[in-house]
């Protein structure tokens, strides 16, 4: 009988301990469990604020500056390619024009 009582007390103690530990663990994650959308929104806002402060302190470069530099470099490359291709295109057009002109002259001469 004493052994049975000790087992039941131990079981009771263990159950209570588990319930208390679960309650303690759940208190820390209550926001996540009860309102996940609010938790996610708060976490997102915290990250945005952290990035904003880091940019203000100069710890992180502005993403806009990086994009502007990248866009500027791309535009410069495209401009160089266009400038290099433009004389070639005009030269080809000129050659085609001269070829057509020569053909027209030959037709007139043959008539």
From TrEMBL:
It comes from the Eukaryota. This is Uncharacterized protein. It comes from Micrurus carvalhoi.
């Amino acid at each position: 009988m004493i052994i049975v009582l000790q087992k039941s007390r131990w079981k009771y103690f263990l159950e209570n301990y588990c319930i208390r530990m679960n309650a303690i663990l759940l208190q820390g994650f209550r926001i996540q469990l009860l309102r996940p959308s609010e938790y996610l929104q708060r976490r997102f806002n915290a990250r945005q604020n952290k990035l904003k402060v880091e940019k203000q302190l100069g710890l992180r470069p502005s993403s806009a500056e990086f994009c502007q530099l990248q866009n500027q470099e791309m535009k410069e490359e495209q401009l160089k390619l266009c400038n290099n291709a433009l004389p070639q295109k005009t030269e080809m057009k000129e050659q085609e024009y001269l070829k057509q002109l020569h053909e027209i002259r030959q037709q007139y001469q043959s008539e």
